[in-house]
Amino acid sequence: MLLDRVKATIKKYNLVAKNDKILIAVSGGPDSVTLLYLLNSLKKEFNLSLHVAHLDHMLRKDSAGDAEFVKRLAQNLKIPITLTQVNVEKLALKGSLEEIARNARLGFLFNTARGIKADKIALGHSLDDQAETVLMRILRGTGLYGLSAILPKRNIAGFWIIRPLIETSRKDIEAFLRRKKIKSCLDASNLKDIYLRNKIRHQLLPLLERQYNKNIKKILSNMAESAGLDYDYIYSRAIVIMKNFDRKVNLKRFLKLHPAIQRLAIRQNIARLKGDTRRLNFKHIREIEDLILNRPANSVVDLPKGVSVVKKKGHLLFFRSK
């Protein structure tokens, strides 16, 4: 039974506690609709207070219909809902559409969670999403943190993000909806192979399942879990070492550290300045390492989002140039 399997995931990662107030992000798609129904089924057992959140990105002509569907769904289940619209395409004139959409979605969820005093924000990522994300990271190039992909539970900006469906396959989600005769929305953009994730979903993963390993999704998910645990341990050790580092890094002490800790220290300093390490890739890390080891004092490396690193005599300085 799907509910029992999801309860096992919840217990395994300690995702839900008694009396939690949970904001559920519901797009109207199969995953988020299933998440909503399952958490609603656990409402009495955990004495949960639920609230639905839906953001209309206004990227599709039928997006308003999705919003109306989610509104009716929440009303039928007698769960309060917060709806809003953001013209992401208009905002994207100033940057990446994908990044603008992600930031708009997170901003909306954080503001709503803050307003209703939610303990957690639940997202509908599944086992298939995890496998797709791992492959995307591998194809684009990644390290241990990137391989950990979608974490079951993560604190972002003071908010706990939980993913109760992270060990549930899309196949089982669709079977659950059919069995319960529950409707969901179809995002037509998910059918087009113009996006890398869709190519992986429709072409690469089926090929790997057919010709290499029928359990490839589970294997990739297990790898993500292992990588996440390994990264968490290394990071916990690094954070103790890095507590004496700030934007001004003593090079003598820095060079005594293990290279894995050095790279974490670099990433951490960049994250402090720009809020995250998105768009930071392996080439940037290697360029900073070359700056430290081979370039003369006053040399500078410029990074995405206006972050720069300058080598001074005896120290490395991280700063925002704009």
Low-confidence stretches: none
Strand order of the largest sheet: 3-2-1-4-6-5
Terminal Cα separation, in Å? 54 Å
* DSSP strand count: 10
Pattern of helices and strands: HEHHEHEHHEHHEEHHHEHHHEEE
CATH-assigned fold name of the largest domain = Rossmann fold
Strand-residue proportion: 5-15%
Per CATH, the class of the largest domain reads Alpha Beta
Number of domains: 2
Q: Which characteristics define this entry?
A:
10 strands; 6-stranded mixed beta sheet; 14 helices; 15% strand; alpha/beta; 2 domains; 53% helix; 4-stranded antiparallel beta sheet; Rossmann fold; 322 residues; Uridine Diphospho-n-acetylenolpyruvylglucosamine Reductase, domain 3
